[in-house]
Specification:
3% strand, two-stranded parallel sheet, mainly alpha
Protein backbone atom coordinates (compact mmCIF):
# COMPACT_ATOMS: atom_id res chain seq x y z
CA UNK A 1 0.00 0.00 0.00
CA UNK A 2 1.45 3.37 -0.96
CA UNK A 3 0.85 6.65 0.75
CA UNK A 4 0.31 9.91 -1.04
CA UNK A 5 2.81 12.40 0.26
CA UNK A 6 2.15 16.09 0.62
CA UNK A 7 4.56 16.70 -2.26
CA UNK A 8 2.18 14.91 -4.63
CA UNK A 9 -0.61 17.45 -4.15
CA UNK A 10 -1.76 19.25 -7.29
CA UNK A 11 0.34 22.24 -8.29
CA UNK A 12 -0.87 25.70 -7.38
CA UNK A 13 -2.72 27.79 -9.95
CA UNK A 14 0.50 29.50 -11.03
CA UNK A 15 0.99 32.96 -12.50
CA UNK A 16 -1.53 32.55 -15.34
CA UNK A 17 -4.25 31.37 -12.99
CA UNK A 18 -3.45 34.16 -10.56
CA UNK A 19 -3.84 36.74 -13.33
CA UNK A 20 -7.22 35.28 -14.24
CA UNK A 21 -8.26 35.39 -10.58
CA UNK A 22 -7.24 39.05 -10.30
CA UNK A 23 -9.13 39.98 -13.47
CA UNK A 24 -12.21 38.09 -12.28
CA UNK A 25 -12.09 39.87 -8.92
CA UNK A 26 -11.73 43.24 -10.67
CA UNK A 27 -14.67 42.43 -12.95
CA UNK A 28 -16.86 41.46 -10.01
CA UNK A 29 -15.86 44.56 -8.07
CA UNK A 30 -16.35 46.74 -11.13
CA UNK A 31 -19.78 45.36 -11.92
CA UNK A 32 -21.04 46.23 -8.46
CA UNK A 33 -19.15 49.48 -7.90
CA UNK A 34 -19.14 51.00 -11.40
CA UNK A 35 -16.88 50.85 -14.41
CA UNK A 36 -13.63 49.01 -14.59
CA UNK A 37 -11.86 52.15 -15.73
CA UNK A 38 -8.62 50.28 -16.38
CA UNK A 39 -10.40 48.63 -19.30
CA UNK A 40 -12.22 51.78 -20.47
CA UNK A 41 -9.66 53.96 -22.25
CA UNK A 42 -9.96 57.72 -21.95
CA UNK A 43 -11.30 59.76 -24.85
CA UNK A 44 -8.99 62.59 -25.91
CA UNK A 45 -10.74 65.69 -27.25
CA UNK A 46 -8.86 65.73 -30.54
CA UNK A 47 -9.44 64.83 -34.18
CA UNK A 48 -12.73 62.92 -34.56
CA UNK A 49 -13.40 63.23 -30.80
CA UNK A 50 -12.82 67.02 -30.71
CA UNK A 51 -16.49 67.80 -29.98
CA UNK A 52 -16.88 65.21 -27.19
CA UNK A 53 -17.93 66.50 -23.78
CA UNK A 54 -18.96 64.92 -20.51
CA UNK A 55 -22.56 65.42 -21.68
CA UNK A 56 -22.13 63.52 -24.96
CA UNK A 57 -24.70 60.79 -25.43
CA UNK A 58 -24.51 57.15 -26.43
CA UNK A 59 -26.10 58.18 -29.73
CA UNK A 60 -23.17 60.49 -30.43
CA UNK A 61 -20.74 57.61 -30.00
CA UNK A 62 -22.79 55.12 -32.00
CA UNK A 63 -22.71 57.40 -35.05
CA UNK A 64 -19.14 56.14 -35.59
CA UNK A 65 -18.80 53.07 -33.37
CA UNK A 66 -20.75 49.98 -34.43
CA UNK A 67 -22.29 47.39 -32.12
CA UNK A 68 -20.69 43.93 -32.23
CA UNK A 69 -24.07 42.33 -33.02
CA UNK A 70 -24.60 44.64 -36.02
CA UNK A 71 -21.15 43.85 -37.39
CA UNK A 72 -21.73 40.11 -36.91
CA UNK A 73 -25.04 40.30 -38.80
CA UNK A 74 -23.43 42.24 -41.64
CA UNK A 75 -20.61 39.70 -41.87
CA UNK A 76 -23.06 36.76 -41.98
CA UNK A 77 -24.63 38.16 -45.13
CA UNK A 78 -21.38 38.93 -46.96
CA UNK A 79 -20.37 36.64 -49.77
CA UNK A 80 -17.00 34.94 -49.16
CA UNK A 81 -14.99 37.26 -51.42
CA UNK A 82 -16.43 40.39 -49.83
CA UNK A 83 -15.90 38.94 -46.34
CA UNK A 84 -12.27 38.18 -47.17
CA UNK A 85 -11.69 41.75 -48.41
CA UNK A 86 -13.47 43.07 -45.33
CA UNK A 87 -11.18 41.12 -43.00
CA UNK A 88 -8.05 42.24 -44.86
CA UNK A 89 -9.22 45.86 -44.64
CA UNK A 90 -10.02 45.55 -40.92
CA UNK A 91 -6.49 44.31 -40.26
CA UNK A 92 -4.87 47.19 -42.23
CA UNK A 93 -6.79 50.25 -41.17
CA UNK A 94 -7.56 51.54 -37.70
CA UNK A 95 -11.32 51.75 -37.45
CA UNK A 96 -13.48 52.88 -34.56
CA UNK A 97 -13.59 49.95 -32.13
CA UNK A 98 -16.72 47.86 -31.92
CA UNK A 99 -18.99 48.40 -28.93
CA UNK A 100 -20.07 45.35 -26.97
CA UNK A 101 -23.85 45.01 -26.86
CA UNK A 102 -23.90 45.03 -23.06
CA UNK A 103 -22.30 48.49 -23.11
CA UNK A 104 -25.14 49.90 -25.20
CA UNK A 105 -27.70 48.37 -22.83
CA UNK A 106 -25.98 49.56 -19.65
CA UNK A 107 -27.69 52.39 -17.77
CA UNK A 108 -24.45 54.39 -17.86
CA UNK A 109 -23.49 56.30 -20.94
CA UNK A 110 -20.20 55.96 -22.79
CA UNK A 111 -18.63 59.03 -21.19
CA UNK A 112 -19.49 57.75 -17.71
CA UNK A 113 -16.83 55.05 -18.15
CA UNK A 114 -14.63 56.53 -20.90
CA UNK A 115 -13.40 59.74 -19.30
CA UNK A 116 -13.11 62.80 -21.53
CA UNK A 117 -9.58 64.22 -21.39
CA UNK A 118 -8.17 67.38 -22.93
CA UNK A 119 -5.66 67.57 -25.74
CA UNK A 120 -2.29 65.95 -25.23
Amino acid sequence: MSRVSERQRPASIGLGGAAVAVLLAAALAGSSAGCITAFAPNIRREEHHAAMTSQSTRGTCLKCHELESHMAKRMQHMDPAVLERHMVEMNKVIRPPLVADWMAKDRRGCVDCHAIKGDR
